[in-house]
Amino acid sequence: MKFAHKTSVVAVAMALALTACSFGPSGEPPAMPSPVHYGAQAQPSRTVAANGVAQQFDIGSTAVPQWWRLYRSDALDALVEEGLRNSPTLAATQRTLSAAQQELRAQVGSSTLPSIDGAAQVERARSPVVPGVGPTEVRYNFFAGQIQAHYTFDLFGATRYANAAAAARVNVQGYELEAARCALAANIVGAAINVAALDRQIALTERLVAVASETANEDQQRYTLGSLSHVQALNSKDDAESIAASLPPLRQQRATAIHALAVLMGRTPDDAPVVPDLDSLSLPDHVPVAVPSDLLRSRPDILAADAAVKAAAADVGAATAQLFPSLSLTASMGRGGFSWPTLLSGAGGLWAIGAGLSQPIFHGGALFAQRRASIDTYDAAVLHYKSTVLSAFQDVADSLAALDNDAQSLASSERAAQAARAAFDETASRARLGSLPSTAQHASEQRFLTAQLGAVRAGSQRMTDTVALFQAMGELPSAQQHVTSKE
User: Fold this and answer.
1) What's the pTM value of the predicted model, to 2 decimals?
2) Cβ partners under 8 Å of residue 332, min gap 6
3) What is the rounded CA–CA span in Å between residue 323 and residue 318?
4) What pLDDT sits at residue 299?
5) Cα 320 to chain center, whole Å?
6) 328-364 as b/e, with b when 16 or more CB fall inside 10 Å?
7) pLDDT at residue 372, as a whole number
8) Cβ within 8 Å of residue 467, ≥6 positions away
9) How far, in Å, CA of 175 to CA of 296, rounded?
10) Of 27, 81, 457, which is closest to residue 273 (Cα–Cα)?
11) Largest CA distance in the chain
């Protein structure tokens, strides 16, 4: 039975040797669908005009490097550049990548080139002898020095596949570094927009609190004079306190956002940066929308999944190559002797040369199990690549839909704010003429401030969703961060 199993192993190995493609998959990512448009409905060429900007979707454009500069704010550019320069998280990822690159160089050098070592030996020894025959002991010196060389021939590509897998995994880390860099820039820009929007909301809410308090005080005075019911005075007090209660949560959101921004930039929370005013940020009027085939080459998460497929394919090849013979060559040359004169004379020459051939015969099924495991891992990597691509398509589709809806929401909020402003101006004029009580003016101003709050929220949401689209488009990778392995 053992002999039959050994024969079957050899037969399978020979069959694999005769079929070159059986060593491993090609490593090319699976073909993915190329939809005509990302979302359930075709994206418009541009959004409706809101806040004076109708965003244009540039279909077929490539990713924009340093896209945050499109907001045309030097202060925002400085925040992003400082974060990319000083973030400890990003720096740690860069160091991890550098370490992986050096480990790859070590692996390639040690596995593809002969190893040569030098050795020297000096020894003083004593050996016992047979009693009664010659001296009672023998003392001698031994001197030797030699150079040893070893090389394993990569007959069936085991080393080549292993190095290719390692190189692909270094590329995975390189693309993950780019993904972290893109995410850091997007997080900084998003946090800055959020803080600026919260500053505006806090200022408007503080004015709302002041107006509501004035109304409550006036109603209390009118109740005291008997011209207003107690219930109406209490309602005014309730409205003022409810508006005042909304202010601390806004301040807390602002504190949390500014602390997060400081940490993203590599600062301590007590050294939070100055954030540009919301009005100083210009909404990008042109945003790129790459076609799906180009998106596959610009999204770092897709490129990382692609590299993982290549690594898994190379692992299959390496596991298959382990089923075949391995040939190694060793050689040494040097001099040795029991004295310095002997060491230096012609009689002291030492040399050796040898070759070794090994063929796996029986390993308890371990080699075949390892190959099957590598095939399953490759299949999982392919499925993960498909999932990553589909998620990327969804990110773009969601961002495009959000920008279209954000523009419509902001346009409606602006119209509401304009109507509330016109009503407030008219009410204020009539109040100054004495035809309306001051409480009517306060109520109109409250409606105007509330409408402004809605417009600020809609406008900031439009800006942050634009950030999300830029991030979804990815950024063209830096070629110098990635390595390839010679095959």
Assistant:
1) 0.85
2) 146, 147, 148, 149, 350, 351, 352, 353
3) 9
4) 92
5) 32
6) eebbbebbbbeeeebbeeeebeeeeeeeeeeebeeee
7) 94
8) 186, 189, 190, 193
9) 13
10) 81
11) 141
The model's pLDDT over 232-280, given as tens digits with 9 standing for 90+, comes to: 889 889 999 999 999 999 999 999 999 999 999 999 999 999 999 999 9
Dist CA 247 CA 254 (whole Å)? 11
Three-class DSSP category at 124:
strand
Phi, then psi, of 63 in degrees rounded to 5: -60, 150
> pLDDT at position 77, please?
96
Report CA 384 to chain centroid distance, whole Å.
Answer: 16
**Which value, to the nearest 10 degrees, does the dihedral of the CA atoms of residues 383, 385, 387, 391 take?**
180
The domain 52-122+140-481: what is its CATH number?
1.20.1600.10
Query: What number of CA atoms fall less than 13 Å from residue 214's CA on the CB side?
Result: 14
What the block records as the tokens of 6 is 């050994």
Compute the distance between CA of residue 419 and CA of residue 399 in angstroms, rounded to an integer.
30
Q: DSSP secondary-structure letter at 118?
A: E
**Residue spans per domain, the chain:** 52-122+140-481
pLDDT at 464: 96
Average pLDDT rounded to a whole number, residues 198-210 = 96
Residue 192 near residue 280, CB atoms below 8 Å: no
